Amino acid sequence: MAAKSNLTNMVLCLTAVCLVCSALLGGMYVLTAEPIAKANADILKASIGAVLPEGGELSDAKPLQVGGQPSEYYVSASGEDVKAYAIKSTVVGFGGPLTLMVGITPDGTVYNTSVLSHTETPGLGAKCTTDEHFYSQFKGFNPAEKILSVKKDGGDIDAITASTITSRAYSLAVKNAVEAFKTIKGE
To answer: Distances in Å between the alpha carbon of 157 and those of 22, 25, 37, 118?
Structure first.
């Protein structure tokens, strides 16, 4: 005999399905939380290594406001001699948050940049991670001598073709990191 369809049966059935699905999602979270955290830590470590000169001891993360948002920075030093700073900077790009790690030497020159995460359009804005001509412009960039914005806005950065918004966001993230660096140095 088939169960009679009424509101009570439908509510009980929906509740049972929701409980089972919630249990499955919770179980998957527990199983994947540690590997995801480890992968994110590895990405962070690789990005810090990519934006700092070799040598030196890396400090623990220190809190900092970058572009008005809470962030963090790291100091690479040999004894008392500071080699560079790695500053995490997040801005909003075309597709959502764009997070960079920016290495800055004690004289204020951008040593290098690395993308930690982005949600930019594949094939367009996502080229900020693959277009060597674009991201290499920031390597050795001295904001005291050049303007840190895209040429379309009167700056010295060549934008990614068809991705001006992402290029502006990337430049802004680097600019915010430079401003945060000035705060660290007390300028």
So the answer is: 48, 45, 34, 20
